[in-house]
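Review form for a predicted model. The reviewer records the input and the model, then writes brief findings.
Reviewer: anonymous (R2)
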Amino acid sequence: MERIKIAALGDSITKGVVLTKENNYSVLEESFVEILKTEQNLDIDNYGRFGCTINYGHQIIDRHPEYISSSEYTILEYGGNDCDFHWKRIALDPSAEHKPKTALNPFRELFVALINKVKALGSKPIILSLPPINSTSYFEFFSRGMDSVQKDNILGWMGGEVEAIARWHEDYNRVLFDVANQTGTTILDITQPFNAYPTDWRSLICPDGIHPNSAGHRLIASAIMTATRFGS
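Model under review:
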């Protein structure tokens, strides 16, 4: 039986990047993509890339449309980097105007356009929602090396609430569900399984607060396999 071919476009979560105990990033051997390959016998080409935003999704399709046209399904996982800010710039000049790497409304428009590109190439788009992030751990991670003044500048800019980071992140996640509804696109909800985890979901996230660890990737794979059987 011929295996179903899938293109996976996304950021470091799709890539399978995790933070090691040595504070280095590495690619997990048993990422959710690799688990799906093995346990659902799927032919998945992984085009996930560390640090990329949705603009990269457009670039890879524009440069290599054959990646999509040769795949029955295309998984789209973007938003985690799009909602992020240039924190060092905020630390140095909190009074200046600072925007996320992709503002919310353009993100919505770009995602709809990305879906339309995938459909036009004959592939079925599937949106992957975002896992939650640990705001406190993420703040501590990206502010390491900053002095107390710079950290206070960022906190002041956020209104004194570190949880503002998670709220921005959730805004982008809601857009994904809105876009799925608007375009009639399947969305695989991996957010809820994290939030419903019987113990603390933060145990599924690396110390940087943003990347799922090996247990988190196993949870993502399980959620996807529970939600769909490709081709069935």
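Findings: The radius of gyration is 18 Å.
Further findings: The chain has a mean pLDDT of 95.
Recommendation: see findings above.
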